[in-house]
Design brief:
The protein is mainly alpha-helical. The chain is 88% helix and 0% strand.
Length: 75
C-alpha cells in the first residue's frame, strides 16, 4: 500500500511539473486532470476506505485511462 501511495504521489508531482512546463493548453489540461486523478487515488489509499482489491482495480483503471489518453493524443 505504501508503494502505491508513493507512486501516485510521485505521478501527481510529475504531472504538475510537466503541466507547468507545457506550452500547449490541451496537454496542460490533460496533465492537470491526471494529477488530480492521482491525488484522489492517493487520498483514497491514505484514508484506507476501499478494500485492497479495489485499490488494484483503481490502479488498473488509471493505467487504462492514461494509455487511452496517450493514444487519443496521437490522432
Amino acid at each position: 500500500m505504501n508503494k502505491e501511495l508513493r507512486e501516485f504521489r510521485r505521478l501527481e508531482r510529475l504531472c504538475l511539473e510537466e503541466a507547468a512546463l507545457s506550452t500547449m493548453d490541451l496537454a496542460r489540461s490533460g496533465l492537470l486532470k491526471v494529477a488530480d486523478d492521482c491525488r484522489l487515488a492517493a487520498e483514497a489509499i491514505e484514508a484506507r476506505a476501499p478494500p485492497r482489491g479495489a485499490i488494484a482495480s483503481a490502479v488498473h483503471a488509471l493505467r487504462l485511462a492514461l494509455s487511452a489518453r496517450r493514444a487519443s493524443s496521437r490522432h
